[in-house]
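ok so i was messing around last nite and threw this chain in just to see what happens. nothing serious, just curious
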Amino acid sequence: MLECLLDIVLDTKSARRVREDDSAVYLGTRRIRSAGRSSGSIEITLPVELEVLEGVECRLIMRDGPRPEIVLQPDVSPAHPLVRDLWQKLRAGMSEVAEIGEFSQGDFTLTFFSPPTWQDRPPLTYVDALVVLQEKESEGAEARHPGALARLLAGMAVAAAYRLGLSGSVAVGFGESVAYIVTGTAAGLGTDFERGMAHPAFWGESRAQPMGSPFNDEVWQQARPGFRRVYDRFRAWQENPDAYAAAREQWYRALAVEVGVRVSSVGGYLEQRRSGRRP
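result:
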């Protein structure tokens, strides 16, 4: 199990300096307060970035020395069965393409928070897994963070794409497209064109409709033919990169003409709409 260290650095002159050889993340300075005169205990308020740890058991460690530190080691093991279960569902969904095999931790970059960038190995973040787990256990509750599940599935689908022979931006586009088809939410990987092309490829002549819960095995079983069509399209792009680049450029040009403004992505256009700026 990967141990992710989240340091609450004591308020010293060097508090903002986090050791470069450590996996620690500086999250701010907090003042320790009494939990009650008769309790003998103390309290500390954790920053909002750690709200996902509510209910999670954490080991508390004191690092002694000239720069003493209080360290939390969250028990993220409950997230592991969730990740493996989602991989098995993805495996079933890809079965008409090829066998993607068992889940392997070595295919991913495991982190607590989502990294700003990544290369080669897609990230799987414990924050997303814990959020999904909490919402899954809240029966009937509306998902407050739909992007968490999309990011988990996108990372897994990118790893699956590598195993299926895709690479580079084609693999990333395939991964996010699979997650988008299943969840209806973009994972933020910047693949607007690929998602736009995957959607009609998946549905074919049928009318798009809600997929159902990604935790339902039947959803993935029924999606197999559609995922095969999506994979065939991405495989063709990989074998003919010039056609891929041309199709991508044409798609963005058509988008610019349609909305009457030059934008770099669908996300850029939607951002303009949200901010109230006219094209």
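not much to say yet. Confidence is low (pLDDT under 50) at residues 1-21.
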